[in-house]
Amino acid sequence: MANRPDPRDPADVTLNPLFARPGEARSLPRFRIGEQPMLPETAYQIVHDEAMLDGNARLNLATFVGTWMDDEARRLYAEAFDKNMIDKDEYPQTAAIEERCWRMVADLWHAPDPETTIGCSTIGSSEACMLGGLALKRRWQESRRAQGKPVERPNLVMSSAVQVVWEKFCDYWDVEPRYVPITEEHRTLDGHGLREHVDENTIGVVSILGVTYTGMYEPVAQVSAALDEIQKETGLDIRIHVDGASGAMVAPFLQPELAWDFRVPRVASINTSGHKYGLVYPGLGWVVWRERSLLPESLVFTVSYFGGAMPTFALNFSRPGAQVLLQYFQFLRLGREGYREVQQASQDVAKFLAAGIGRLDAFELWNDASDISVFAWRQTPGHSRNWTLYDLSDRLRQKGWLVPAYPMPDDLADMTVQRIVVRNGLSRDMARSLLDDIEESVRYFDKLTEPLPDAPRSSYHH
């Protein structure tokens, strides 16, 4: 049955008479391409007016993705809009800068020898995760075939709090996901219960440096130690992929002594989002392998393109090169000390907010932003039956703030939390205003004499 047209969403886009130029149509089809061209100024005004209805990115405390860069970076971005990252024959200098960047990242993550490692840029962490997972699967398959063993039932072990990209990876590439539930006692994948989830078909274990639900680091060295014990008992040699979408660009600067990266021998590969705490506009990720042998040659293709032969192992082909240049700009612009200062400033604001929220009787902190500048809290059990964290999220949205509320995974699915992500650009003064709005909202809710109506809620996707 065809969907009925929504009377609130008319079929045509109408133009204000002041915007339409002489001879141009005053009404345009919404869901098909119009018959005639229009002046660029008119097209700009239409798109501009629709886009201005989006939220204020500075007040969006749900997303990890960067929303601010220097004016010089914006100018550089505009100059590089047309660069195609895959066209290394046309843009050899951009290709050279890409290699410099992933080698810098490999050095940042203590690769044993950045000159003999391998890596690449990607559209974001999702593509980088796919590549890391594919390398684990292919190495497992090649090892099993060499031993004359079947390769039909690979599995990947991870926390129940993984980001949805890992569910997608397992679904897309026919890998069984095995989730280790998080609990009140074990709030991250910490090695507890790992033995019950791994076997000879396990292609690897995913450790998250900055769990999306809460921002907490999973203790990679502790997970590695558990796998050491499993190898002693069973002979299974299982590698780790670190999903460092956020934390891999924070820990090197705020927790430099923490061993989570290639200092842990079992870590085969690491990914991060350049467009999160790498401080670049959306559309950039990085993935690096400890050494070339951990990226199977069967995943690397040599293609003839624009007059040259080049190896490629990314999932996407043509893609923008501008963000790679922006990452190099940030590495030059900030250096290690600059990154440390920026990440420390964000963490200081996050801890300020966490302390303020933790002081309210209505809430209990789940974590306090001691890892990345992200923290979550729940409503104190028994505090009130008249309102929930969803109500608080809705009220804050009315004030412009996006502070999501959502259920925790699996064994904790009956627990609702709220989370704040502090990114570069949220000042202490803005945080103080947010805290004032939260306190005012709690006072308002606590005066209610009966429960608020239960309205349909839009789900929040990590």
Question: What's the total helix number?
Answer: 10
Note the overall shape. Answer: globular
Query: What order do the strands of the largest sheet run in, or round the barrel if closed?
Result: 3-9-8-7-6-4-5
CATH-defined superfamily of the largest domain: Type I PLP-dependent aspartate aminotransferase-like (Major domain)
The largest β sheet comes out as:
7 strands, mixed
Supply the number of structural domains: 2
CATH architecture of the largest domain: 3-Layer(aba) Sandwich
CATH fold field value of the largest domain: Aspartate Aminotransferase, domain 2
Q: What amount of the residues lies in strands?
A: 15-25%
Rg: 24 Å
Give the SSE string.
Answer: EEHHHEHEHEEHEHEEEEHEEHEEH
What is the percent of helical residues? 25-40%
Question: Which class of secondary structure composition applies to the elements?
Answer: alpha/beta
What is the CATH level 1 assignment of the largest domain?
Answer: Alpha Beta
> How far is the first residue's CA from the last residue's CA?
32 Å
Mean pLDDT: 91
GO molecular function: aromatic-L-amino-acid decarboxylase activity; glutamate decarboxylase activity; pyridoxal phosphate binding
Protein name: Glutamate decarboxylase
Keywords: Decarboxylase, Lyase, Pyridoxal phosphate
InterPro entries: Glutamate_decarboxylase, PyrdxlP-dep_de-COase, PyrdxlP-dep_Trfase, PyrdxlP-dep_Trfase_major
Concise account of the structure shown:
This protein is α/β, with parallel strands linked by helices and 462 residues long.
